[in-house]
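User: I need a structural model of DUF4177 domain-containing protein from Actinomadura macrotermitis for a docking pre-check later this week. Nothing fancy, just the predicted structure tokens so I can convert them on my end. Input:
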Amino acid sequence: MVEYTYLVLRLPRGTTRDAARQIMTEHAEHGGWELDRLRLYPDGSRRIQLRRKIIRQVRTFRPVPPGA
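Assistant: Understood. Predicted structure tokens for DUF4177 domain-containing protein:
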């Protein structure tokens, strides 16, 4: 099962659509985030929820105990 970590951004009502797009683009290109949800409130503010996969490393090398 894939696990995600989330980042919530809140943008004030004066933020333009182009500025919001630029903020999300920078997070996507430099942090590996993708858009999960975007909510535009009646007062003009935005709540943006971004997510990215949690990559877990699996140990592939098993050390041999001494004397074995």
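Before docking, keep this in mind: The CA atoms of residues 60 and 66 lie 19 Å apart.
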